[in-house]
Amino acid sequence: xxxxxxxxVDIKDAAEAADLYSNLLDTxxxxxxxxxxxRAICHWNQWMQSRSGILHEQAIGKRLSxxxxxxxxxxxxxxxxxxxxxxxxxxxxPSLNQGALPLRPLPQFAATFERxxxxxxxxxxxxxxxxxxxxxxxxxxxxAVQRDRLLRQQxxxxxxxxxxxxxxxxxxxAILQNxxxxxxxxxxxxxxxxLNARAQELCGPEGDPxxxxxxxxxxxxSQHTPPQRPTADRLLTDLGTGVIEVLACTKNGRNVxxxxxxxxxxxDGRYHYIITLRDISQRKRHExxxxxxxxxxxxxxxxxxxxxxxxxxxxxxxxxxxxSYTQLIARRYKDKLDETADEFIHYAVDGTQRMQRMIDDLxxxxxxxxxxxxxxxxxxxxxxxxxAANFRRAGxxxxxxxxxxxxxxxxTGDASQLLLLFQNLVSNGLKYSDPxxxxxxxYTAETEESWKVFVADNGIGxxxxxxxxxxxxxxxxxxxGEYAGTGIGLAICKKIADRHGGTITVESEPGKGSTFCVExxxxxxxxIAQESM
Length: 533
Prior knowledge:
This protein has 533 residues and is α+β, with helices and mostly antiparallel strands. 42% of the residues lie in helices and 20% in strands. The chain is elongated, with a radius of gyration of 52 Å. The protein folds into 4 domains: 14-140, PAS domain (Beta-Lactamase), CATH 3.30.450; 179-279, Beta-Lactamase (2-Layer Sandwich), CATH 3.30.450; 285-371, Helix Hairpins (Orthogonal Bundle); 373-531, Heat Shock Protein 90 (2-Layer Sandwich), CATH 3.30.565.10. A 5-stranded antiparallel β-sheet has the order 2-1-5-4-3. A 5-stranded antiparallel β-sheet has the order 7-6-10-9-8, sandwiched between helices. Strands 12-14-15-17-16 form a 5-stranded mixed β-sheet, with helices on one face.
């Protein structure tokens, strides 16, 4: 068999060969420039025309430095001179910016690059007649430079990310090792790994051998054989409460109460659990101290209450006797003694009556927190109806001097104590107002969490410096001869407001009256709600 032969192009003369080579050079995808011994350009292909904007006719016969004056002192002109004089080839890389020609980049690179990034190869040529020429091969390497920049940027970002990751790992490791809590991680197969020194101390080879079993028992069921339930003295709290406390035994035999918190995460298609053990020894000591203090306070309060009741009961008996005989002397010897004796008898009777009222008020104050009734819904409209009826029966003030302005809500509390609170405020408003024109106005305001009940009067008012002290026991702003009272009424009001989880404040201006504000919560705090049951 004969081998197939390739088609042969028959070039008949030198002119055809020259045209063929000229076309090849013009259609090349690189820039081709030939420079003669006189430094003049003798070839300038179409690639150079399109990238420089200089036509072939404009370039032939001119020097490269004439077309591009900025290259006159650059690396390229020196390389051309060395090539023509000494036959030295050269390669000018994109990093040598002074050797670059001012060629236009492709449109897709114009926004990033001012000029084309290029690699220029300078090579000597010797013709058949012995003429020495210099050829320039210009390649567009803008895309490669762009890729290199992106790679360098990505490498820098990756290096920074690695640095940050290492820094984060070091910081995390330092935090884990220096935290006071013991931190462990467990997989769903029950394997437990201590992550820090405190965890190693508690659960490691020299730690509590039973603690790891307790932790496995506390983990969710992973379809493995469940560990044995710990003894009751090792689980300090009920598992149903959500807060788990266990007792660990250290190497030196010291028992340490621990609070256990468990969370989970998923990795590698498996569940893993993070177990945090916190030493709560100090908190337990504080709780015991608080319980001991509360017990002592409870006992002290009980003893004080018994003492107050006994003292007041024992005081009332001789006080009644003194009052009775003083009043008997006043009736029997009235107008039979001189005026001085009558005045002394009057003072004695008045003093015993005031002491009687003070003892009664002290008993009321001491019983606010200890003998209160359970809390129920209390309509304030009905409450102020009862207060107005009480004042009408007592004949205090003209009719209509207690005014209700707008809606009065229903609050939660001890009805009898709330009656006493608002009755004291209304009584004070009438007492410190003009008997004929005195008026007490009741109105309310609602917030998101509470009701505010205002009791406003048009009386004599209170100086600003006394707005806080008037709620203290025995704090009177006037003498007994000016206004009646024991100085305990507002202290009782404050204690009742405190028992209901509320507050009482006053705003006043001398000569323009006073406005007391009792703020009662819509939802009672848990402690108060339990005490009121």
